Amino acid sequence: MSSFEEAETEETVTCLHLTFYHPGQAEKMMFRCLDFCQRQQLRADDTAKFGRDSSLCGYSLVDTRVSRIQFSLQFYRKLHTSEYAFEIKNLSKKTKLTVNQTELGYLNKIDLPWRCIICFGDYQILAEIQEGEAMDYFETHLHLAEAPILQERCLPFLQPVPENGVSPSFPLSQGKSPTEIDENEM
C-alpha cells in the first residue's frame, strides 16, 4: 500500500465568512486588529466573541462606540441531525443587533441563517456559512468590503393598476386626485 492509500480521509471544515463594512473605516481604522489575510481555526466548543475588549474578544473592533463584548457566535450541531449551525447572541446592553431585520436585544439569540446581514450602529457584516463535516473545529475567514453591504434601493414610482388589469394610457395629472369609475361605465 502507498502512503496515499493509508492517509486519513480529509474532512471539509465549516467556515464562517464574515465581510465587514463601516462608513468610517478608512479614517478610523476600527478593523486594524482583525486578520483579513487567512482563515482562523477555532475549537468547536469556543465561542467567537466580537467587541472592543481585546482581552475578552478574539475579534476586536477599535471603536469606543462598540460594547466591550458586542456579540458572540457559537458553533453547534443540530439535534438529531448531522447538520452544523451557528447561534448569534447579542451581548450589548446598549446597542440592539439586527440579523436580516430581526432585532435582538440584550441576551437575545437566534440561529444564524446560512447567508445574512448583521447590523449594529454603523457596522454592517455579511455572514455566509460554508458547510463542512468536521465536528471538532470550525474556521472563520474575514473580508473587508469597500462599499456598503446594505444599499438603499430606490424603487421607481409605480402607478396603481386598476382591478381590470388595464393601466390608464394617460399620466395622472399633477394636483388632481384619481376618480373612481364603475366598471359598467367603461
What does this structure look like?
With 186 residues, the chain is mainly beta. It has a single domain, classed as Tumour Suppressor Smad4. It has two helices and twelve strands, in the order H-E-H-E-E-E-E-E-E-E-E-E-E-E. A seven-stranded mixed β-sheet has the order 2-12-1-11-10-7-8, with no helix packed on it. A five-stranded mixed β-sheet has the order 4-3-5-6-9, with no helix packed on it. It is globular, with a radius of gyration of 24 Å. About 11% of the residues have low confidence. One of its GO terms (biological process) is positive regulation of canonical NF-kappaB signal transduction. InterPro entries: FHA_dom (IPR000253), SMAD_FHA_dom_sf (IPR008984), TIFA (IPR033621).
Keywords:
186 residues, mainly beta, Tumour Suppressor Smad4, 7-stranded mixed sheet, 4% helix, FHA_dom
Helix percent band = under 10%
Measured distance between first and last alpha carbons: 86 Å
Largest sheet: 7 strands, mixed
Number of helices: 2
The level-1 CATH class: Mainly Beta
Topology:
Blueprint: H1 3-6, E1 15-21, H2 25-28, E2 40-43, E3 47-51, E4 59-60, E5 71-77, E6 84-90, E7 97-99, E8 102-104, E9 109-111, E10 115-120, E11 123-130, E12 137-144
Parallel strand pairs: 1-12, 3-4
Antiparallel strand pairs: 1-11, 2-12, 3-5, 5-6, 6-9, 7-8, 7-10, 10-11
